[in-house]
């Protein structure tokens, strides 16, 4: 009863604020299978995201019970004379408020706080077709649950993110990238079919063959064209185990040459290529000293600090080879043959062996440790850049060894143990940031999708994944790290390095037009077709919602 009263109150506020002409009882009686909620705790959860950098308070939160619920809500927003905004929220792991909306309704696709508290999940488990090698999943499903379900059938998706507590709809709205991308492309290249609720409230099935314009628009589409309620994802036989290897370099060009050589093997038979290739840049001497104990068995006697050249910057190549019982006999030879062609520091080979699921779910272990230390729910001023291969050496000089490498205060603080965390690899990446380099081959990115990549055959994803800490250390403060991000972007601009932001964040439409370049006209046309009132995913700040009484779209 109290909830109903609160909800009526919230809907009345919606009417007052945006002139919503849907009768409150009508919205209450939309007949949703799930629940519309104004619970302050849920509204608070939906007001924030992983970045903890922005805040936008919605009027209400919808826990959908079905795709029809979402269609009903979006249709109500679309047909009302004044309109209101609707944002799908996956797991809320954006950085800059991309899944937030003020004065509108947030749809908790993955359950949100209420879902996790009450176990409120009404959706079917992922449905695996062993014969067709695909899985049908709800758009808010987390990748970890997709993996668990498919493993029951000995199958697994082909392309991953480093972290699995992200939603299917959330990563498909961006790209979904990890070290498998050189082989299989990003996650958006591994989807067969989608169900999408458009900004007009229609539920459409789309694929390469059917409603293909919507299909390509939604993939990498930043939530602008519709809400993904179902995805059919490609599967492959799941390997049982993973050989996980790290090697170090002190020379940047040797490091990138080896990475580029490894991805050039993508067309080889499985036995003659790695399954995953990533790299890390370690700019902090304190981290270098921690490196060995952090991840690898202490059997290896190498003194890492003694091999760091070039002003203390080290580069780490991370590679894996999947195998199972049938290939266990040959794994050593296969790995050895592949490593022969590489030029890493000979004494720096670190190897571990683990079940496939443990490798894919590796970052979650770090999350638990960071949560226990109170270091997970802190601001994350992350910056992700796609950088053309031809300009990586400039980035190394100007950013890794320049803007970031000069950060001696951080180094000093670290050596004195100011941040007292026992480091595993991902503790490092999330707290102190080696900058992940993931090589990606562009031709596996379907240029018909909405995702933007640099205009070059090979490009890298440079991910600066840093956490701001309020510990009195200036170089770890949010302000300092944010300024460094601005400096990096300015450096790229001044040096003419044509980077593209991944998980992009801009605040003006001019910047978005620049981001999309030649693709802007297509992006705009698709928006006008699928979300003409601009009510979806307004947290991306690309289009101004049309909340006027005439129903016309107001210019930005
Ligand atoms: P949200 O942040 O909730 O939403 C992101 C955007 O998608 C919003 O605009 C939202 O409105 C829209 N959206 C959400 N659901 C839907 C839907 N069903 N239909 C349409 N639009 C929708 N990315 C990588 O590529 N590789 C990585 O290795 C990687 N690692 C990460 C590790 C961590 C710890 C974190 C926090 C993020 C990582 N990311 C990575 C980034 C991640 O892909 C993005 O945060 C992405 O937005 C997914 O998060 P989410 O599911 O919580 O979506």
From TrEMBL:
Q: Listed GO molecular functions? A: cytokinin dehydrogenase activity; FAD binding
- Signal peptide positions are 1-21
**Which cofactor(s) are needed, names only?**
FAD
Give the top-rank taxon of the lineage listed in the UniProt record for this protein. Answer: Eukaryota
Residues annotated as domain FAD-binding PCMH-type:
54-238
- Pfam families on file: Cytokin-bind (PF09265), FAD_binding_4 (PF01565)
Q: Which reaction is the catalytic activity of this chain?
A: N(6)-dimethylallyladenine + A + H2O = 3-methyl-2-butenal + adenine + AH2
Name its GO BP terms in alphabetical order.
Answer: cytokinin metabolic process
**Keywords in UniProt for this one?**
FAD, Flavoprotein, Glycoprotein, Oxidoreductase, Signal
Instruction: State its Enzyme Commission number(s).
Output: 1.5.99.12
Q: Which Gene3D superfamilies match?
A: 3.30.465.10, FAD-linked oxidases, C-terminal domain, Uridine Diphospho-n-acetylenolpyruvylglucosamine Reductase, domain 2
Its EC top class is oxidoreductase
What family classification does the UniProt entry report for this protein?
A: Belongs to the oxygen-dependent FAD-linked oxidoreductase family.
Protein's UniProt name: cytokinin dehydrogenase
Organism of origin? Salix dunnii
């Amino acid at each position: 009863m109290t909830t109903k009263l609160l909800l009526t109150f919230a809907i009345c506020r919606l009417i007052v604020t945006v002139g919503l002409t849907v009768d409150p009882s009508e919205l209450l009686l939309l007949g949703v299978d799930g629940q519309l909620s104004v619970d302050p705790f849920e509204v608070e959860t939906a007001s924030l995201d992983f970045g903890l950098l922005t805040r936008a308070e919605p009027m209400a939160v919808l826990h959908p019970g079905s795709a029809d619920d979402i269609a009903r809500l979006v249709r109500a927003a679309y047909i009302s004379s004044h309109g209101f905004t609707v944002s799908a929220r996956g797991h809320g792991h954006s950085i800059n408020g991309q899944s937030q909306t003020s004065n509108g309704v947030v749809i908790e696709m993955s359950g949100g706080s209420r879902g996790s508290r009450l176990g409120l999940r009404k959706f079917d488990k992922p449905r695996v077709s062993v014969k067709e090698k695909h899985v049908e999943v709800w758009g808010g499903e987390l990748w970890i649950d997709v993996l668990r379900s498919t493993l029951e059938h000995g199958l697994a998706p082909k392309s991953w993110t480093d972290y699995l507590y992200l939603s299917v709809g959330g990563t498909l709205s961006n790209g979904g990238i990890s070290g498998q991308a050189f082989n299989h492309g990003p996650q958006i290249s591994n989807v067969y079919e989608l169900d999408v609720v458009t900004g007009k409230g229609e539920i459409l099935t789309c694929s390469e063959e059917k409603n293909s314009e919507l299909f390509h628009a939604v993939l990498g589409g930043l939530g602008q064209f519709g809400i993904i309620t179902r995805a059919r994802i490609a599967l492959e036989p799941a390997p049982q185990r993973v050989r996980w290897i790290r090697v170090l370099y002190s020379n940047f060009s040797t490091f990138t040459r080896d990475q580029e050589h490894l991805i050039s093997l993508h067309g080889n038979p499985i036995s003659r290529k790695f399954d995953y290739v990533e790299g890390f840049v370690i700019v902090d001497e304190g981290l270098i000293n921690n490196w060995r104990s952090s991840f690898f068995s202490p059997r290896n006697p190498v003194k890492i600090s003694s091999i760091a050249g070039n002003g203390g910057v080290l580069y780490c190549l991370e590679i894996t080879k999947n195998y199972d019982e049938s290939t266990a006999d040959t794994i050593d030879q296969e790995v050895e043959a592949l490593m022969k062609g590489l030029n890493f520091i000979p004494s720096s080979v670190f190897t571990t062996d683990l079940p496939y699921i443990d490798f894919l779910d590796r970052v979650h272990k770090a999350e638990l440790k960071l949560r226990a230390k109170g270091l997970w729910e802190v601001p994350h001023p992350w910056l992700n850049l796609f950088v053309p291969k031809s300009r990586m050496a400039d980035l190394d000089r100007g950013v890794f060894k320049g803007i970031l490498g000069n950060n001696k205060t951080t180094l000093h603080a670290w050596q004195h143990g100011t941040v007292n965390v026992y480091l595993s690899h991902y503790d490092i990446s999330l707290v102190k940031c080696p900058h992940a380099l993931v090589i990606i081959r562009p031709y596996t990115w379907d240029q018909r999708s909405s995702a933007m990549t640099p205009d070059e055959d090979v490009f890298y994803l440079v991910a600066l994944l840093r956490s701001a800490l309020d510990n009195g250390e200036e170089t770890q403060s949010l302000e300092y790290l944010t300024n460094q991000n601005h400096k990096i972007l300015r450096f790229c601009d001044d040096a003419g390095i044509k980077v593209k932001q991944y998980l992009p964040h801009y605040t003006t439409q001019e910047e978005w037009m620049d981001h999309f370049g030649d693709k802007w006209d297509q992006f705009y046309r698709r928006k006008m077709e699928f979300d003409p009132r601009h009510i979806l995913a307004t947290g991306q700040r690309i289009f101004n919602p049309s909340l006027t009484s005439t129903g016309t779209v107001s210019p930005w």
